[in-house]
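Revision sheet: structure tokens.
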Amino acid sequence: MQYYGQFRAPGEPVAIETSLGYIIVGQAPVLAPSIDNSYYTHCTFGEDNLDNENNVCIGNFLKLEDIPDVKPYTEQEEECESVYRQTTTRDSLGRYIVSLPFKDTPSKLGDSLQASMRRYLSLERKLLLQPEMRQEYDKVIKDYLEKGYLNPCSRNINESSLQYVIPHHGIVRKDKSKTKLRVVLDGSMKSSSGLALNDILQVGPNLQNDLFRIILNFRLLNVAVSADIRQMYLRILVKDEDRKFLSMLYRFDPSEEIKLYEFTRVPFGLCCIPFLAIRTVRQSVTDEGSQFPLAAPVADSDVFTDNLAISCANEETAVELSNQLIKMFHAGGFDLVKFSSNSPEVLSKIPSSHREFEVIEFSPDSYLKILGLNWLPAKDVFTFTVNLRNRECTKRNILSVIARIWDLMGFVAPVTLWAKLIIKSLWANNIDWDETPHPEIVAAWHRFVSELPILENVRIPRHTGIVMECIVSLLEFADASEKAYGGVVYFYMFIFHKQISSLYACLCQIQSGAVTMRVIGKTRIMRWPKRISSRPYSEFTLIKNLRMWSLAKYYRLHFNGSEPLFTKVSFVLAGDWRMLTWNLIVSTLFYFPLVTM
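Predicted:
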């Protein structure tokens, strides 16, 4: 232990180096005692920050390694929830009618027609140059009009009234077999007062379920089922008095007059829409769930945006669950469609209009991803898609590619670690955004890009191997070096059956009563490139994160008697710890009694 304080003034603190870094010891100014004898504790710390204003694009990539935390509602979020409860109603068909959650008076909005008109004319010129896209756009708008999602406005287009005219544009999904174009509204366009519609709307609390947990549960049992809520947002009606703030411009031919339309449903593109949509689905579960005991907990916890994914112990349960889900969502005005399953028997008992035979994507905004995760129901495996373009090797382009790598479960953690180390090298060498990096970084990047398509050949079994009447152990391992540290979690299953089902044997490639299946993997880079960190400390940190974030937390609900019997931690010393030559093996075993599902 060393301390550094030779040049300090009297009364100043001392910096002491410990095995975990520097600590500050000494006197510090404190507040004078208050009348009520309150005590105050102040803590200040510093840390390298990779998420500054110049690299926000990489934030989502790094957040994949973070532990999701549950935060209490803020005052504004509580207010938004209160508005929803007080104003939401249902019509005679059971459909939900919601109000826009304003946080400020709509009268503060200025004129939006002129700016929206300029945006529409620009869009129209673009569509004239792309006949196929124009045809798709007309098709979507006509479909909206026929279904009543959009109505002609009774007001004159030049009439001065309190309204908000929202510009719109189309997003094309060429990888979709059916609806390839989605019309998206831009609620962030400023009106003449300097305020946009999104500026005066509550965002609402984040109600999204944890996708990590959903995929874990999706892998749990041998029969998998997935489905989508068709046009989820457009199934929710908006109150009449709020529809004037959801106006849009359109015409089907440049020779016609531009007309003003109003959305009668919740459109895509406003800041409050995710809250309204998910909150309405949960309200539907609350209102209708008592009639559908199997479907209610699934709809509440295993839906991510408009996608549902769940696994069942057998085909009978999967069929009954699917039918209950269809009926429960229909009772709330939603259509649950695009059912997929690894079981032909399950699919045969679902109406053909509700089936889907495409590859199922698990990556959010998959059309933007360089590396995305897919599920092939017929083979019941996860695969990766790689979408790369040739770009100049600069820091900006490197980060643009890496930021679109999506590997939430850590299936290809060594590959993503390589990308993280390249990021670290860019910052350590102070590379500017449009500067070509050093030759060694360029060489590492070219190798990474050239080998990334190989991941399309990787096949990850969807089913972890858990079957009825088995004992499950969680095995966790971690190790570290000067550059990075990583960990992995395995399932170890012991099955009492003398014979294992063909599906299980095929997936896990076993012929005995025990099997080990990798479930997740995680890696992190060392955040202090100029300081030696404690390697055992890094390993302990990661393995703790794995335990907190992974299986023990989420799978206990599926088993009885889920408390661990013991924890084993062993250290293997290969030299002086200051030279970072520790190896740590951590095994935490959870024993469960017979599972009867």
